[in-house]
Amino acid sequence: MTMQRIQHDEGDRTHEPAESSPFAPQTPQEVEEMLSAIGAESVEELFDVPEAVAFDGDFDIDAKSEFEVVTEIEELLGRNADRTEFLGRGHYDHYVPSVVDYLSLRSEFLTSYTQYQPETSQGFLQALFEFQSMIVELTGLPVANCSMYDAATALGEAATLAARVRDTSGSRVLVPETIRSERRSVLENYTEGAELTVGTYPLVDGNVDLDALTELFDDDIVMVYAESPTARGAIEERLPSIATLADDHEAAFCLGSDPVALALLQEPAAVGADIVIGDASVLGLSASYGMGLGLFAVKQAYLRQVPGRLVGTSKTADGRRAYTLTLQTREQHIRKERATSNICTNQAWVALRTAIHIASLGASGLSALAEDCVTTAAEAAARLNDIDGISAPVDDRHHFREFVARTNRPATEVVSELAEKGFLVHEAGEFEVQVCVTETNSGDLDDLVAAVREVLG
Amino acid sequence: MTHEIPDDLHYTDSHEWIDDGGDALRIGITDFAQDELGDVVFVELPEEGESLNSGDACAVVESIKAVSDIYTPVTGTVTATNDGVLDQPELLNTDPYGEGWLFEIDGQVPDDALGATDYREQTEE
Amino acid sequence: MNYQQATWEQETEGGEAVNEPLLSEKRMETVSHEDVDLPDELVRDELTLPEPAEPEVASHYTRLSQMNYSVEHGPYPLGSCTMKYNPKFIEDVAALEDAAMHPDRPEADAQGTLTLLYRLQEYLAEIGGMETVTLQPPAGAAGEFTGLLVARAYHRSNDEDAERREVIVPASAHGTNFASAAMAGYDVVELPSNEDGRVPVDALEEAVGESTAALMLTNPNTLGLFERDIEDIAETVHEAGGLLYYDGANLNALLGRARPGDMGFDIMHYNVHKTFASPHGGGGPGAGPIGVIDELTEFLPDPHVRKADDGSFELSEPAESVGKVHGFHGNWLVLLKTYAYISRLGDAGLKDTSAMAVLNANYLASQIDLDIPYEPFHHEFVASAGDVDAAEFAKGMLDEGVHPPTTKWPEIVDEALMTEPTEALNKDQLDILAEAFTAASRKTPEQLAAAPTTTAAARIDQTGAARNPRLSWRDLEGNDE
């Protein structure tokens, strides 16, 4: 139980005398000694808050014991329905090895701050430098920062970067019509302040409609964005052509992907991407109700315009290699309203987890995981396709983790009937459902197939 | 600390110097300015052929913890830039009046430019 | 104090001295995808990454962790950052399997999570004196940006967006305020502090007008001072038709004692990783919920957790929503930890938190022999290192086994040492921290220049790092200087 510590001068307040925070260690005797050293009679006296704006009410939040809080939250979260998720659409669940938890939860990592004193923060700095290096290996682009919040905000930052680096003016950003509406909404909020507008280009059979995109392209476009895999799970086959189009119009080409897909698919640098964004927390974090890790990598020419923190190497006074935050003049604490971004707190700890996850998989393990994402999606699509009333995949493309299937009944009904049977899939269109399979749910695929057969067969 | 202030140059309040000894006017930052900034790590210069108006921010000098805009004290066209400082920004620290110059501009020394004595007085304040 | 951080000095194959080799210097593997059923042009030629075995992974990161100072090592008094103890149980709560679900789950299948988020919205609204809270912004700066989007949407709804193009920010504000305003498309008007370190109401009266969209303010300000004229400030901004924005970085000083909503603020963000003890994680993740007054509720981001008529919780789109500021629902795991922390402390604990934070700062200040030009301060104070460079002073403190304060900011104090001990230090630790200040102030310039000597790395050449950026292990190959 919490102990009673301070007899506040309560005045006309009616609530019980305050109990102490379990995370503030001062004893009543220490409080007395400290007050006496300060020359104050009471702690209340230290507050310089005018009476007119002082708060003397209650929040009506009852203190609880640790056991009570844990029990309450277990009970609350237990109200989430017991469902097997076959959900993806830009946010994925891969198995996170225990070693990631045990190492990242070490308090030295977890309870440290941004590395503004590098001499005493070498460990985290090296881990972030290694994270950046892994992203460089995966993208082929030479510069990766040590995190944005998530893929959507990384895309927003990419667009404003693209506008800054252009010699000539431009006012539009093009994105695929299949982009998640949420991601597009974030992008629009980031671009509004930079006076850019967002337009879409169509896809045909799951990949970019190049003719239509060519038609739409002009010198007013500052950035074109493409995804591979797309939000519908298709591997985009026309990236080099998009890059050429962008080049012809001095627009930046931004590719959206993720570290697992990047381990298998053609290197972004090789297909002409200038910027890569994406959610790197597909490794290192569970689906976590959408919490992410914004991946952000660029070509060398954009170095000075990168948002967020960068870790570089240098030497110590005694000649050892050391790591430090660098090129900080880009950032808000120095450049203020002219900074490349307002980002300060980022997702550093998630980046640490992602790096540990990649290290523990190794090149071979990551590569195998990525290959499985192709074979599992193809197998799952084939099995659903065998059922009457459903055909899969809708898009005649190669898929990664997920695919869209056409149903002979309205997708809303199919999705809700499957949910009743304990399986969650996306509604992707009026007669389309989307199914995502990774190693965390592939063991339940037989049951899903059986349920789909019952619903549609 | 005393700073070098050559007698034959013109100066501005914002710590640029102007050398009118050549065909075009050569512009740089003063010894005082480089000392205030600390170790220069990055320089951005105007483009050759760019037209500038007096007071335009036309170059950027960065140290580890500070960013400074450089304002052209002269209206005119940029005729040359010192690409040497792009590769070796430390030249602004080691030789601010020599190899650390920034750009040359085709124009007139402004009437309000300071002489060495006035500039010395100003920096000593 | 006799202190030595761990290190494992060794040489790489290239003969370079390092503290712990990079993973890339241990074992790298290059693989290619020969058996995958995809056309060659879609597949990368090869992939090169480290290939350590699990024991090697464990050893590598354990060693790295031991070369990293943290809250649990000792005092970490970074001003404005609120580096306090992070309770362990909140990590267990975040690790619950029911917390791991996918963000696209239908509302009916996510009632537990939505209930918890709704309760957290209510708690935060009550704590801040606000009508409604959104939890979506993933960090404090994102909260600022969101708040300004809300302000812009509000002015737009009054047909005033075209005129109201300015956001006023005090010179001593956090750098994020300026940057967030610029990102939201506003011009920034900087307001200098008055002689006693606060916002000058007369200068503010001059600055506001028909072009004012908002004033951003933190209270207590970055000097730890309460803006005593807050009611006049609010009236001035409101009369000009602007909105008042509260930067919540220092809310921990006022928990249970004053609420931004009662002071006249219209929009605020909460830095839950500061005020409510979710761990800083080496720079993030945090979360930056924002609270707004009733009039602004309909502009909040989509989706917003609301209670339906049948008592269930739903994700609804506010009528005039600004749209989204995060791809999904924000940093959910951080929000969950925040809920756990607030539930544990309750009213009494929250109020005690601000009491002990302010007591600790005042006691620490009384024990150090440096000039503190502005008072009365609350949870933090800004001391001056005097004739000594504050950054050098900080390096001297590192050798005393503590983390130094924030240095050289706010600039209104010469050679600033912005110090926030938080409520989590006991008196002995505060005395150790005070001794570290004293020890550093006794060091000669030469001793400071040679510091630190007890950390894993001696003084690092920052200039070299910036002049020749090497940002990945690829940049190190054949480049050992």
**Class per helix and strand makeup of chain C:** alpha/beta
**Alpha carbon gap, first and last residue of chain C:** 36 Å
User: How much of the residues of chain A is beta strand, in percent?
Assistant: 15-25%
Top-tier CATH class of the largest domain in chain C: Alpha Beta
User: What characteristic shape of chain C results from the CA principal axes?
Assistant: globular
- Strands of the widest sheet of chain A, in order across it, are 2-10-9-8-7-3-4
Helix content range of chain C: 25-40%
CATH topology name of the largest domain in chain C: Aspartate Aminotransferase, domain 2
CATH class of the largest domain in chain A: Alpha Beta
CATH superfamily descriptor of the largest domain in chain A: Type I PLP-dependent aspartate aminotransferase-like (Major domain)
Oligomer: heterotrimer
CATH-defined superfamily of the largest domain in chain C: Type I PLP-dependent aspartate aminotransferase-like (Major domain)
Mean pLDDT of chain A: 95
Instruction: Enumerate the spans of chain A where pLDDT stays under 50 for 5 or more consecutive residues.
Output: 6-18
In DSSP terms (H or I, runs of 4 or more residues), the helix count of chain A works out at: 15
Walk me through this protein's architecture.
- The complex is a heterotrimer of chains A (457), B (125) and C (481).
- Chain A has 457 residues and is of the alpha/beta class.
- Chain A folds into three domains: 1-74, no CATH class; 84-94 and 363-456, Aspartate Aminotransferase, domain 1 (Alpha-Beta Complex), CATH 3.90.1150; 98-355, 3-Layer(aba) Sandwich (Aspartate Aminotransferase, domain 2), CATH 3.40.640.
- In chain A, 37% of the residues lie in helices and 15% in strands.
- Mean pLDDT of chain A is 95; it is low at 6-18.
- Chain B has a single domain (24-124), classed as OB fold (Dihydrolipoamide Acetyltransferase, E2P), CATH 2.40.50.
- Chain B is built from four helices and nine strands.
- In chain B, the strands form two sheets. Chain B has a six-stranded antiparallel sheet.
- The radius of gyration of chain B is 13 Å and the shape is globular.
- The two termini of chain B are 12 Å apart.
- Chain C has helices at residues 54-66, 89-94, 111-128, 140-157, 175-183, 201-207, 230-239, 260-263, 272-275, 332-367, 390-398, 427-442, 445-450, 462-467; strands at 10-11, 17-18, 28-31, 47-50, 132-134, 166-170, 187-191, 212-218, 243-247, 267-269, 290-292, 304-307, 313-316, 381-384, 406-407, 416-419.
- In chain C, the strands form five sheets. A seven-stranded mixed sheet of chain C has the order 5-11-10-9-8-6-7, with helices on both faces. A three-stranded antiparallel sheet of chain C has the order 14-16-15.
- In chain C, strand 1 (10-11) and strand 2 (17-18) form a beta hairpin.
- In chain C, helix 3 runs parallel beside helix 10.
- The radius of gyration of chain C is 25 Å and the shape is globular.
